[in-house]
Design goal:
Helices cover about 5% and strands about 30% of the residues. The protein has 6 helices and 40 strands. The strands form 9 sheets. A 6-stranded mixed beta sheet has the order 8-7-2-1-12-13. It has about 725 residues and is mostly beta strands. The radius of gyration is 28 Å and the shape is globular.
Length: about 725
């Protein structure tokens, strides 16, 4: 029976761009190294034939010093290193269909699911077989599944052996970090010459939440004949720099949270203390049963989850701790509320604007008649270290529900409800992630995207079933400049003279904007230029002379193949040369502020029919206006969203992709909206148009459609 592979979820739904002839054998498509439970390999079948995998093997087991190599497998000795973090494994007797992908998790299924919230097709510990029956070649110890499997540097090899021949056949070969793990079978009996080790290409090393991604389904090889590959290629000759890229591991930013989330926290100076709470869902949320607290006392066992019993639910410190209930207000879908943690006058003194709420003036005591807010607004409320918890209690249940949870400094204030009656296990305190202490008064903690990097999205104490204590804050949050430190790019145009001599950096500024262009002019004697654009459409060039952008952490942000858009903050010296520019002296002078998914934000939900909902207003594209829209679809569907004119003529296509899970995608305020242009990039004439969605279920053939009018205007 043919093995039926799962359809790839949104996690792997990036396009494969075809340049040249597709490979005529199996190829690696995606490889993730870190963190440990993210390790996986995707193998793609680019051919038009189903391929049985029973004689295919995969390995990272190379030991140069003891001359142990995979190609010794036919001799049944010296074919793997024997190291517990190495493996040489045989695929089970399954078939990989033409055009399909196979997802191989490199630990057990639990580890994979913690990171990706999905199940792989196969796992190394559970499905894969030892290379030779009776010889352990996957793990030398029972706990090895918790070790890092793929190291930096390393090699990964997919190969074929029929069980009879005296030689193996390379299928695909991938090398990263350096070429110390490179393999050459030159001079080995019965093999053709491989590429000389020192001439083999390799990819740079990557860290957490990054992934190697093959751009093309062909291989950029210099030797296509007389090689040791299964179809005669020299697999060791591929130029990885041309066929592979490094991108963000999509699950970290692949869906929008389905509950309220913290967006920003300011802890210093005292007057600036604030919390911003964002509603990433498609529904308005009424806040009267929501609570906020930093009141945890591990020494006296006083915790917020005791609130239903009316005792021991906060530390009792009237100076620096609080547990407060929100007033009867609503936070709209897609909106943010700002809570100042002192009074209005303090907040205004620092920000020159008013917050939506303040702790002193607007928030309520957790229980009427029992003071649970500070009595002196002049004390620091958010300490170093500290925890902040947003939670929900309906006033009747004996349990509360976590909504969002943020921990910084260390785990001394962490909360674990694992042994508390009525609660699921939380992440153990010692395993909880936390952000480093931020001592800089003009900076704040900022969530980069509207998702949460959580391991457990079921069986938790969160309001939607997540374990809020397991979020990986270091991948999801960063420290950025507070808004009152940022210079508006428009102010530079208005307040500075281009004819002024800016030698020796008399003016140093911090600017913020989305990266829109990158140019490397060094071959012509110039700098590298990163162009950013602010919310008003003003642009400024960031010039780099003394360091390489592509090899720094900025590299993926300027990669034209990366579909994400990045908002950055940059501090530099103001100058003018054919336009305003800031010279950026080092990579650390650039901070990644936010990431926008140009394909919108996905919210999983129960949907049975297609629905399209454009925003109910007229847009004027000539003024840079864009049209927000949302679309919903059932599971296992190809989703196509197009624009047509009144006569039914095609204008442009906005969406064409597969979704395995049902839900709604929000395309708004992140450059994923419709810009009022046709498929040629031209602004459409004013008038009425139709936005149409069509979904098709691959398994059942069932289709669903919906249409809604949109109006394009013109400025007179």
């Amino acid at each position: 029976m043919k093995f039926q592979l799962k359809q790839l979820t949104l996690l792997f739904a990036l396009p494969v761009i075809l340049f040249g002839e597709a490979a005529d054998h199996l190829i690696f498509k995606r490889i993730a190294l870190a963190p440990t439970n993210a390790e996986m390999v995707v193998i793609h079948n680019p051919t038009n034939q189903d391929i049985p995998l029973g004689n295919y093997y995969i390995t990272d087991a190379v030991n140069q010093s003891s001359l142990k190599y995979y190609y010794n497998l036919p001799d049944s000795s010296d074919f793997w290193s024997g190291d517990s973090s190495d493996f040489i494994a045989r695929f089970p007797d399954i078939t990989l269909g033409a055009g399909d992908d196979l997802i191989l998790g490199l630990h057990n299924e639990e580890y994979y699911t913690r990171y990706y919230s999905d199940t792989p097709d196969l796992v190394l510990f559970g499905d894969m077989l030892n290379a030779i029956d009776g010889q352990m070649t996957i793990s030398s110890g029972p706990a090895s599944f918790s070790f890092d499997i793929l190291q930096n540097p390393e090699v990964l090899i997919l190969f074929h052996w029929d069980g009879i021949s005296t030689i193996v056949q390379d299928v695909d070969y991938f090398l990263w970090g350096d070429n110390n793990h490179a393999i050459s079978k030159t001079g080995i009996s019965d093999y053709f010459s491989d590429t000389y080790v020192l001439n083999q290409y390799y990819m740079p090393s990557i860290g957490d939440h990054k992934v190697y991604f093959r751009l093309f389904s062909n291989e950029t090889e210099s030797t296509l004949i007389d090689g040791n590959g299964i179809t005669g290629h020299d697999e060791t000759s591929e130029n990885f720099a041309l066929s592979w890229h490094i991108i963000d591991n999509v699950p970290q930013f692949s869906y929008t949270s389905d509950h309220l989330i913290f967006k920003q926290l300011v802890i210093a100076p005292t007057k600036a203390e604030k919390v911003a709470i964002f509603n990433p869902t498609i529904h308005d949320i009424e806040l009267s049963n929501y609570y906020l607290t930093d009141a945890v006392n591990n020494f006296t066992s006083k915790y917020y989850y005791n609130l239903p019993f009316g005792v021991d639910y906060w530390s009792g410190s009237s100076f620096s701790d609080f547990i407060a209930r929100f007033p009867d207000i609503t936070i709209s879908a897609g909106e943010t509320i700002t809570l100042g943690l002192h009074d209005v006058s303090d907040y205004f003194d620092y920000y020159s604007t008013n917050p939506d709420l303040t702790l002193m003036d607007d928030m309520l005591n957790a229980i009427d008649g029992q003071p649970s807010k500070p009595t002196n607004p002049n004390f620091d409320l958010l300490q170093n270290p500290e925890v902040l918890i947003l939670f929900y209690w309906d006033g009747a249940s004996e349990v509360v529900q976590d909504v969002d949870y943020f921990l910084w400094g260390n785990t001394s204030n962490a909360v674990d409800k694992s042994l508390i009656t009525g609660y699921f296990p939380d992440t153990p305190k010692e395993n909880q992630s936390y952000m480093p202490i931020n001592y800089e008064e003009n900076k704040l903690y900022h969530r980069k995207s509207n998702s949460e990097a959580e391991f457990f999205r079921t069986g938790g104490n969160g309001i939607t079933g997540h374990d809020e204590t397991c979020e990986d804050f270091t991948s999801e949050w960063n420290v950025v400049y507070n808004s009152n430190q940022i210079a508006a790019i428009s102010d530079i145009f208005e307040n500075y003279d281009p004819d002024t001599d800016y030698t020796d950096c008399p003016v140093e500024l911090i600017v913020e904007g989305v990266i829109v262009e990158f140019a490397d002019i060094r071959p012509k004697g110039g700098p590298q230029n990163i162009t950013i654009e602010d919310n008003e459409g003003y642009r400024i060039s960031l010039t780099v002379w003394d360091w390489d952008v592509a090899s720094s952490f900025i590299g993926p942000m300027v990669d034209p193949y990366n579909p994400a858009m990045y908002v950055i903050q940059a501090s530099g010296c103001l100058d003018y040369y054919s336009g305003w520019q800031l010279e950026i002296l080092a990579p650390e002078n650039i901070i990644e502020h936010s990431i926008y998914n140009t394909e919108g934000e996905f919210v999983i939900g129960d949907v049975v029919i297609a629905k399209i909902e454009p925003a109910p207003y007229v847009i004027i594209p000539s003024m840079g206006e864009r049209l927000d829209f949302t679309y919903s679809f059932p599971s296992n569907s190809r989703v196509v969203v197009r624009i047509f004119d009144l006569s039914g003529r095609f204008v442009t296509s906005l969406v064409d992709r597969y979704y395995s899970q049902p839900g709604t995608v929000l395309r708004q305020q992140d450059n994923s909206e419709w810009d009022g242009r046709d498929h040629l990039g031209q602004i459409v004439p004013p008038g009425t148009y139709f936005m149409n969605i069509e979904t098709n279920n691959f398994s059942t053939g069932k289709t669903s459609m919906d249409t809604a009018p949109v109006v394009v205007g013109v400025k007179f």
